[in-house]
Amino acid sequence: MSKIIVRGGKRLSGKVKVSGAKNAVLPIIAASLLSSDGESVIHDVPHLDDVMTMMQVLRQLGANIVYDRETMRVDATKIVSCEGTYDLVRRMRASFLIVGPLLARMGRAKIALPGGCAIGTRPIDQHLKGFEAMGATIELGQGYIEAKVDGRLRGSKVYLDVASVGATENIMMAAALADGTTIIENAAKEPEIVDLANYLNAMGARIRGAGTGVIRIEGVEELHSVTHTVIPDRIEAGTYMVAAAITGSSLYIEGALADHMMPVISKLQEMGVVINEDENGLHVSAPDPLKAVDVKTLPYPGFPTDMQSQMMALLLKADGTSIVTETVFENRFMHVDAFLAMNAQIKVEGRTAVVGGNNRLKGAKVCATDLRAGAALILAGLAADGETEITGIHHIDRGYVGIVSRLQELGADIRRVEVELEQVEEEMSEVGLFAIQPTWA
Ligand SMILES: CC(=O)N[C@H]1[C@@H](OP(=O)(O)OP(=O)(O)OC[C@H]2O[C@@H](n3ccc(=O)[nH]c3=O)[C@H](O)[C@@H]2O)O[C@H](CO)[C@@H](O)[C@@H]1O
Ligand SMILES: C=C(OP(=O)(O)O)C(=O)O
Fold first, then answer.
1. Where 2-(S-cysteinyl)pyruvic acid O-phosphothioketal occurs, residue numbers (predicted)?
2. In what order do the strands lie in the sheet with 322-325?
3. Residues 357 and 339 reside in one and the same domain
4. Which of 174, 230, 319, 434 could form an SS bridge with 289, CB 3.0 to 4.6 Å?
């Protein structure tokens, strides 16, 4: 078991290269199941635990996968199983994205109820509503969902009650091989949806409108394998932009795509962060002090919920009080307790957090409760006095490629150490479930 130890107060400098987007590559790997004619080649596949999990999920179905450096070759010509088992699916919610492709190609998918970050109840009713509208029957029981269709799925109109990213992706993949046209209304508009649609269209699908609220998918009889390069990870890029801002440093974020990051860029600019775009990335530098701003998370093109905790870390150092409102997930303030242990002033009322500024953050023993919360604790640690020890690192490994070594290269005092499980358990029992303990008290 590992923990990350950060000693705050160092300035950062240099450049960091953005990886391929986790939230684009996971549905793209799943979409490779739709081709029965040889090998799809996917470039810029980031080395993340979630990618490894998706690879294992597809291998269990019979796909042949070779993953070397950042290129993944997926050959799903032979599918031998239509089942996503509990031990894999519980690790990652995106495993549920195999259901649309399996249903469309094989007429059947059985899968354990999905896991993922504990940031809300995260139902899958909108996915199921889409499949049912296309003629599938759904059975639920003993922690599994089974979806079946006789023959091909039928094109249909699906209005999503919430603009769900995963439901839009799952329905789009299912509809790509359906008989007739599917129209998804109130579709999610995230850049990762556009990347998936581009991948499917290159495979021979007929999808129009991805990136808008209405997506039309004319089903085709078969899809073929292609080569594709995944878009850069806008959340990873945003996290490093906050690392620059919270340490009062200048960094170059190579490969960051400003077009996908406008809500984050404009909020940081509102705070006083200086951001200049060139053809390969973003130059970020931060004066001291930064201004307090209010942040409200919304589906794209609103401010991303996946950047909320990192932004809150930054607001702790801003000059004045900020209001952070989380509208996408009902339980995404789990990082607040850890910030409080680091001497922060924050009050949470429902989905709103009042974040005091000018905090003198102090190192503490804290635990990452989800992926982005973990990133936010590293960021807070970079700006805190003394040492911050972060456990729960497996969450961070789901979504950040080599975050410790990358920050070390930029000049941060950060290291990852292996510890005995018993030691972590002992520390956790001393301080309660979330292992939060001020080291400065
Ligand atoms: C692998 C991946 O791409 N994960 C991202 C994806 O997750 P994910 O696709 O799971 O998120 P959704 O967009 O589906 O969820 C948004 C909201 O819709 C609700 N909902 C969703 C589906 C459904 O059937 N019913 C329902 O009520 C959820 O509980 C949540 O409150 O989008 C989220 C919102 O931008 C991001 O935080 C995640 O990082
Ligand atoms: C919440 C996230 O991931 P997931 O949907 O896989 O839990 C995330 O990437 O921040």
1. 117
2. 295-296, 322-325, 352-355, 346-349
3. yes
4. 319
Q: Which tens digit of pLDDT belongs to each residue from 297-342?
A: 999 999 999 999 999 999 999 999 999 999 999 989 999 999 999 9
Hey, how many other C-beta atoms are within 10 angstroms of the C-beta on 420?
9
What is the interface pTM, i.e. ipTM, of the complex?
0.99
- Does residue 91's CB lie within 6 angstroms of at least one atom of ligand 2? no
Range of the domain at 291: 2-19+232-438
Q: How far is the CA of 380 from the centre of ligand 1 (A)?
A: 26
Ligand 2 site, residue 116, Cβ cutoff 6 A: yes
Same domain assignment for residues 257 and 373: yes
Q: Positive or negative CA dihedral for 160, 353, 287, 396?
A: negative
Ligand nearest to the CA of 48: 2
Measured CA to CA, the distance from residue 257 to residue 238 in angstroms comes to 10
185 and 315 in a single domain? The answer is no
**Counting atoms of ligand 2 from 1, which one is nearest the CA of 166?**
5
Contacts of 152 (CB under 8 A, 6+ apart): 104, 177, 178, 179, 219
Residue in the structure block whose two tokens are 């007739």: 180
Torsion of CA 242, 246, 252, 253, to 10 degrees: -20
Say if residue 438's pLDDT is above 80. Answer: no
Ligand approaching nearest to the C-alpha of 238: 2
- What's the gap in Å between 45 CA and the centre of ligand 2? 17
Q: What tokens were used for 310?
A: 């990192």
Task: For residue 289, report the distance from its CA to the centre of ligand 2, in Å.
Answer: 31
Residues 200, 326 share a domain: no
> Considering 184, 204, 229, which residue would you say is the last residue of a domain?
229
Asked whether residue 271 falls in the same domain as residue 401, the answer is: yes
Q: Which atom of ligand 2 is nearest to the CA of 329?
A: 1
Same domain, 13 and 35: no
Is there a single domain that holds both residue 224 and residue 367? no
pLDDT in tens, 185-240: 999 999 999 999 999 999 999 999 999 999 999 999 999 999 999 999 999 999 99
Q: What was the pLDDT predicted at 432?
A: 47
Catalytic residue among 25, 103, 117, 194: 117
One domain for residues 200 and 281 = no
- Identify the sign of the CA torsion 257, 262, 332, 95: negative
> Is 117 assigned a catalytic role?
yes
The better pLDDT of the pair 324, 288 is held by 324
Q: How many domains does the chain have?
A: 2
Name the binding residues for phosphoenolpyruvate.
22-23
- Kindly report the protein residue whose alpha carbon is nearest to atom 3 of ligand 1: 23
CATH of the domain at 337: 3.65.10.10
